[in-house]
Amino acid sequence: MPAGNILVADDDAAIRTVLNQALSRAGYEVRSTSNAATLWRWVSQGEGDLVITDVVMPDENAFELIPRMKKLRPELPIIVMSAQNTFMTAIRASERGAYEYLPKPFDLKELIGIVGRALSEPKDKPRNAARPEEVDQIPLVGRSAAMQEIYRLLARLMQTDLTVMITGESGTGKELVARALHDYGKRRGGPFVAINMAAIPRDLIESELFGHEKGAFTGANTRSTGRFEQAEGGTLFLDEIGDMPMEAQTRLLRVLQQGEYTTVGGRTPIKTDVRIVAATNKDLRILIQQGLFREDLFFRLNVVPLRLPPLRERAEDVPDLIRHFFMLAEREGLPRKQIDPAALERLKKYPWPGNVREIENLARRLAALYPHEVITLPVIEAELTQPAVTPEIDTTAPDNLSAAVERNLARYFAGFPDGLPPPGLYHRILREVEHPLLTAALTATRGNQIRAADLLGVNRNTLRKKIRDLDIQVIRTTT
Fold first, then answer.
1. Which domains does the chain have, with CATH numbers?
2. Each residue of 390-446: pLDDT tens digit?
3. How far apart are CA 205 and CA 428, in angstroms?
4. How far apart are CA 138 and CA 121, in angstroms?
5. pLDDT band at 32 (very low <50, low <70, confident <90, very high)
6. Residue 456: which H helix or E strand, with range?
7. pLDDT of 173-232, one tens digit each?
8. Of 421, 391, 385, nearest to 407 (Cα)?
9. Interior/surface letters 83-119, b for 16+ CB within 10 angstroms, e for the rest
10. Where do the Response regulatory domain residues begin and end (predicted)?
11. pLDDT tens-digit profile of 352-380?
12. CB 457: neighbour CB atoms within 10 A?
């Protein structure tokens, strides 16, 4: 471990003591202070090999001091710690050239590891340039440990062009994260262009992505620019990437490999300069196994994987989120609302199947429909316990597959005490359906796997693999 002199600045004496002891045990010399003026004097005199500083100091904010320290000593690593554990704290720390950001409370072993890495790195390694303008909006809300990890990762990604794959359930805020990567990144001066693969007809996706020439197909009366061209110099957000058809996946892979594309009906290659951010609520590895997603494209897109946790995994963020959405509703002209502690506790215990989108809708509904300024527990109970609307099945109508599945699922759910089966239901049901479906297709085609694959709409190799995995007996007949 490299030797070094560490300068610590925090107005909390207890924190300074803990840091002094931990760093001293690790073999470092430590000097600590409770104010920014002393820290600046030490740095300006050339003292210290690394700085650890809190953001809020009694005489000056560290975000105002860090640019001066970096200008005077660009090679000096600065670790920022803060109890203001917001997305913008992490971003400001990164923009002002901090080596690392640590939300309080943090693990001392992690801190010692970061100090060791910082002192071991070459001193001439370029750091991120500071961004002078302040931002006045918080794109992401939450102070939970899960969100802190996301903030730290985003801060590291802001000054890069690395491709990012965002995964998470519907309503977790995948597009918000993509926009934050753009708005606070090096391409913020360029356009942010989003395209939802699930919302575009399959035969139009290539035209939407790459544009088309006049006369390329019926109805193409003029030349049209695609999303790649529109996003030139900026960020292209490919939402619901798991719904992209195979043929479009092949063209996208070629673009990512070669850095150029041709329009539909065009012949001249067009160079592209865009940052790709993709998102999905599906497990792409399962789609790969099913032959529905290209593995080579997955690895091209999954350079930096970023998983957004569902709201039930960060229930401690619910109070911040409900207050944030109440504030947004008030700005839009809805009545001001507050919420009492008992109601907040009830919200924290709710599983939030719709995630952040669901809590946003609830906040707007509460602001619009209830006259009380303070939302109480009975109001929340009434909102969260509204019976689900379950359509009645017309038993006189002809039976179909959908109705039969619906009835069986209703009985299956009712077989559990709380009406909720164990997690993993989606893939468990698919596995149960897959065996009879493949068996039926093979039976209908008299065991002809080529015809069965065509009937199912899957690759023949995929079908063969599933036959092996599911141990399906195939009997070929000619009659």
1. 5-143 (3.40.50.2300), 160-214+224-307 (3.40.50.300), 322-384 (1.10.8.60), 422-479 (1.10.10.60)
2. 444 444 444 567 777 777 777 777 766 667 777 767 777 877 788 888 888 888 888
3. 31
4. 32
5. very high
6. helix 449-456
7. 999 999 999 998 889 999 999 999 888 887 788 888 988 888 777 777 788 888 999 999
8. 391
9. eebbbbbbbbbbbbbbbbbbbeeeeeeebbebbbebb
10. 5-119
11. 999 999 999 999 999 988 888 999 999 99
12. 8
The model's pLDDT over 110-158, given as tens digits with 9 standing for 90+, comes to 899 999 988 887 665 444 433 333 333 556 888 888 888 888 888 888 8
Q: Which residue stretches of 36-85 are H helix?
A: 36-44, 62-72
DSSP E strands, 208-274: 235-239, 260-261, 270-271
Residue 427 tokens read as 């893939």
CA 52 and chain centroid, separation: 29
Amino acid at site 178:
A
Q: Given the structure tokens 């019926």, which residue do they identify? A: 218
Residue type, 421: P
Enter the pTM of the model.
0.61
Q: Going along 46-115, which residue ranges are E strands?
A: 50-54, 78-82, 100-103
DSSP assignments along 3-29, one per residue: --EEEEE-S-HHHHHHHHHHHHHTT-E
